Amino acid sequence: MGVMKSTGIFVVMKQARRILSLIFLFLPVVAPLASEPTADISLPTPVVPAPPRLALEALLGGKAVINVNGRRVVLAVGERKPSGLYLRSLEGAVARVDFEGRQYRLRLGQGPISTRYAKPLRESVTIAPDPQGMYHTPGAINGQPVQFLVDTGATTVAMNAREARRLGVDYLLRGQPVMVNTASGRSQGWFVELDEVSVGGIKAHSVGAVVMDGGFPQRILLGLSFLNRLQMQHKGLLLELREKY
Questions:
Q1: Which domains does the chain have, with CATH numbers?
Q2: Which of 152, 119, 118 is nearest to 135 (CA)?
Q3: Residue 122's CB: how many other CB atoms inside 10 A?
Q4: Residue 222 has what pLDDT?
Q5: Cβ(179)–Cβ(188) under 8 Å?
Q6: More confident residue, 101 or 156
Q7: pLDDT at 46 over 90
Q8: Per the confidence metrics, is the pTM higher than 0.70?
């Protein structure tokens, strides 16, 4: 009798375990909620435009030659270019201009000068004066040999019309008419841009120049549009021209 009771209890427990196993088998499996990944939102860095590169390169009979980001323009006081450049005033060697919503004060010969390439060594040329104390030096314009007269009183390289024609400078087609003050009064001229001007091993590209109607000047003047790109130093009577960079 005791054996039969034990056997019955064992059968009941075995069936109960089977039922529990079936219950757990069909229970839905609930996966733990995965945390949502944090969105990586990176704001774009604001682009700050570079400041304009402005330089006053020459003064031509009440007009200013201004280099704007490597491009030369000629303006009279009160004139505004399509680019927005406006010449507010011109006093002595200082021009006040408006550009891109700001005002700038430009001094002749000061400002960034762009060069096409940099040399590891700076070239230099030493010039001796003639008996009159003038400094003459051989050089080249657009690869053509010329004789220069160094003239720090000339705001640009200057030549007469005959020399311009000899050098192939088409000032009538490419030049901009300007009135130029000379020792003998006002004269008709044309502002042009020379591809290359060189003295010895020193070379400069895109050099402003004025072609004068008639036979003046007799010698091509090496003015500040070229000289301002160099360092000038007197060593006794000698004049040394040296590249800045």
A1: 54-107 (2.30.30), 124-243 (2.40.70.10)
A2: 152
A3: 14
A4: 97
A5: yes
A6: 156
A7: no
A8: no
